[in-house]
Amino acid sequence: MLKKLRRKFIAVVMGVAAALLLAVFAVLVVSMETGMRRQSEEMLNQALNRRVWQGEDHKEEPGSKPVLPPEGKGPNHQESRFPCFTVLVKNDGTVNLGDRAEILLQYFEAEGLAALAREVAQREDFSGSLSAYRLRYAKKSGENGTVIAFADSSAEYNSLGELVKNSLIVGSVTLLLLFGASLLLARWAVRPVENAWSQQKQFVGDASHELKTPLTVILSNAEMLLSHPEEKPERWAKNILAEAQRMKELTQELLTLARSEDNAYAPVMERMDLSYLVTDSVLSFEPAAFESGHELSQQIEPGLFLLGNAAGLSQLCGILLENALQYAAPGGKIRVELQAAGKLARLSVSNEGEPIPPEELPRIFERFYRSDPSRHGEGHGLGLAIARQLAELHKGKIWAESGEMGNRFVVTLPGVKAE
């Protein structure tokens, strides 16, 4: 699946890049062709106006030089940028080649050029192009005949051909470089999906493993009940009840974790007294701390309010307190602190116990992750993962600190207001 996703990503990138390059090159070619055509048409009009300025009936003897207007005079006088010449096709069909007709005489014989001029003179349009001869023309009709101006567009065709060739070379090189870059980008872009896919596979495997044990116990005890109906089933029934309760807790934790990761699930946020909520959570854990022989102390700044979900934050506090009790050293102290830090509320729960190894600190918030077997408790390894999701749901952060004196879990929540 991931390989197919990478291929689709590369195909999309290359398709978009090719379309953009094609659009850019098309705009360049069209712009260049339009600009050169306009210049050619300007030259044709200038040559046509110059011939008209001389007079349509001006007689030119074969081999004689044309009469040109004085320098700086005449309509639209400008230096020609395209090879241009004029021809007069008289009413009787004779053709008078004008100035600069020698431009095409190296490609046409005089008779062939004259026949081409008569053909153009008979056309109804006043301007156009002759692609087969790479010529543009414009004409004006008068009493004595039709004046036709021709322009050689070979340079235009050559320039456009050169532009297309260079565009193909530049485009090919660009696409090759982009293909190499897209391979790297595909790996980078798909990496989050790959991580999510790996985590999902691990999650399914871990959940299956966690559910396998209680299901095995339930099935074995149910078989014992069926195979020994004469004996008292109380012991087996208690085992079934205990494992069923464990499965219920696990599925509830999985449901909580799934909901906290679902963007569509939006818990109700309301203004709440965080100081009161943390104090209430600590009070509810005092009996458990007393029974286990731990000293539970608190330092809670009063009057801290924020916008949050009371049930979610209460669960977050409960997870941290339960984790502190579970891994505290025998007779070790547990301390809960809540204070304002600017616009943040900083909640910390610390205990005296065996330090968490540095290599385990980044992983303790992963689902189903539990450290060394000697430190395993009765949980399923989902509590801290749920705590992280609840903190992120409130746009907060959670992390763990460890040292020789014990471990500390810290949560910061934004938007706090002291009253």
Write the layout of secondary structure elements.
Layout (H helix, E strand, L loop, with lengths): L1 H53 L29 E7 L4 E3 L4 H4 L4 H12 L5 E4 L4 E7 L3 E8 L1 H74 L6 H28 L8 E4 H18 L3 E6 L3 E5 L1 H18 L5 E9 L2 E8 L31 H11 L3 E7 L2 E9 L2 E2 L1
Parallel strand pairs: 7-9
Antiparallel strand pairs: 1-2, 1-5, 3-4, 4-5, 6-8, 8-13, 9-10, 10-12, 11-12
Helix content: 40-55%
Radius of gyration: 45 Å
Oligomer: single chain
Spans with pLDDT under 50 lasting ≥5 residues?
Answer: 53-81, 373-377
Indicate the structural class: alpha+beta
Overall pLDDT: 77
**How many discrete structural domains?**
2
Number of strands: 13
The proportion of strand residues reads 15-25%
Number of helices: 8
Indicate the overall shape: elongated
Termini separation: 54 Å
Summarize the main sheet. Answer: 5 strands, antiparallel
SSE succession = HEEHHEEEHHEHEEHEEHEEE
Strand order of the largest sheet: 2-1-5-4-3
Properties at a glance:
single chain, Heat Shock Protein 90, 5-stranded antiparallel sheet, elongated
Word description of this protein:
It is a single chain. The protein has 2 domains: 2-158; 270-418, 2-Layer Sandwich (Heat Shock Protein 90). The chain has helices spanning 2-54, 102-105, 110-121, 154-227, 234-261, 274-291, 310-327, 383-393, and strands at 84-90, 95-97, 127-130, 135-141, 145-152, 270-273, 295-300, 304-308, 333-341, 344-351, 397-403, 406-414, 417-418. A hairpin with a 2-residue loop joins strand 9 (333-341) and strand 10. The strands form 3 sheets. A 5-stranded antiparallel beta sheet has the order 2-1-5-4-3, with helices on both faces. A 5-stranded mixed beta sheet has the order 7-9-10-12-11. A 3-stranded antiparallel beta sheet has the order 6-8-13. It is an alpha+beta fold and 419 residues long.
